[in-house]
Structure formats: structure tokens, C-alpha cells
Amino acid sequence: MDLCHVPATREKGWYLALMAPNVKGPNYAWLDPSRLYCHPQGLQDCLADLLQPFQGDAIDMVAGIDAMGFILGAAAAATLRKGFLAIRKAGHLCVQTEAQPYSDYSGRQKLMELRTDAISPGLRILLVDQWVETGGTMRAAIELVERLGGVVAGVAAICMENSEGGRWIQERYKCSHCVPPRLQPRFDQHQ
């Protein structure tokens, strides 16, 4: 797809066609959204769709999850005129941190960190990542925010798969994603 082309009619999720399938094998995510970020209108429409459910909600800060959540999270923070907090994989922050173990989409055990001085009690945080597949990464971010006294105001991702972890998050938090209901089964089956 031409990275400058904008369809005449733009329904929710039109920009999902900009994503590229995995060609490198099972150790990589099945779909790569980074090309979507290169398309100016695609990125703007994706952000508008992600943030629409939170219009009028009290949000104090946006937190993006390492690493691709940094792109959407920072863009969402700029759009909302809020600060941005990076939730990092362990070993990248040189300040006092709180850590949380988790399993990523490939089943690898990892550790996530959050600086301890970034969240004050009651601060309302919108958590953003590019994808919620198994929910392990997002759940670790939720646990870190809540452990430091923050309130999860919502969770936003391009796709939230209908996995056990994805359902756990959607049952407990206000969520937003970009996949139209008619396409959700294809995304859940990685087609």
C-alpha cells in the first residue's frame, strides 16, 4: 500500500491494512504495525480511534510500554496534552525503580521497571501498547502502576486479542482498540 494514499472513505480500522505480516519466523510478533506509523493519516486516524472512548475522562498521564508502546503512547500524550511515562524493560533506568516479572507473547520470562518517583497516589494513567496478545506485558504494567498508588484510567492498543489475558484486562479496565468486530476473529487466529 502506498504510504501517501488515503482512501476516499475511511472507516474505523482502514489503516490496519498498512501493517505487514511476519516474514522472520516464530520468535517475532505475527504482524508489524510500524509501517502504519509511517502513514500520516493512518497514524492520525488510529490515534483518534484509540482515544475516542476516553474523551471527557480524567487522565493525568499517558504511559507507554517498552518499546513499540512508546510510539503510540507519546503520540497519545501529545494529542491529549499530557505527560508521558515510559515503562521499561529491566536494566534501562538509572534511577530508583519498582520491578515486576512477566511472560511476553513468546513465553519468555522478563522483568519490567517503572521509576518510583513518576506516580503519586491517585494519578490517573492511560496505559498504551501496540498490541495485547497474551496480556502478560500489559498486566505487569497495570500491577506496577497500581503498586505505586496510581489508578489505571484505561488501556489502549491497536489490537487486544481475545486471549485469557486479554479478556482479564477487558473485564477489569476501560479498554480501546482499533480492530472492528468483524475482523477480530482473524486477528485472534493471527490471519
Automatic annotation (TrEMBL):
GO terms under biological process: purine ribonucleoside salvage
Signal peptide per UniProt: none
EC nos: 2.4.2.7
Methyltransferase is among the record's keywords: no
Subunit note: Homodimer.
The family this protein is said to belong to: Belongs to the purine/pyrimidine phosphoribosyltransferase family.
Protein name, as recorded: adenine phosphoribosyltransferase
Species this protein is from: Hypocryptadius cinnamomeus
Source taxonomy: Eukaryota, Metazoa, Chordata, Craniata, Vertebrata
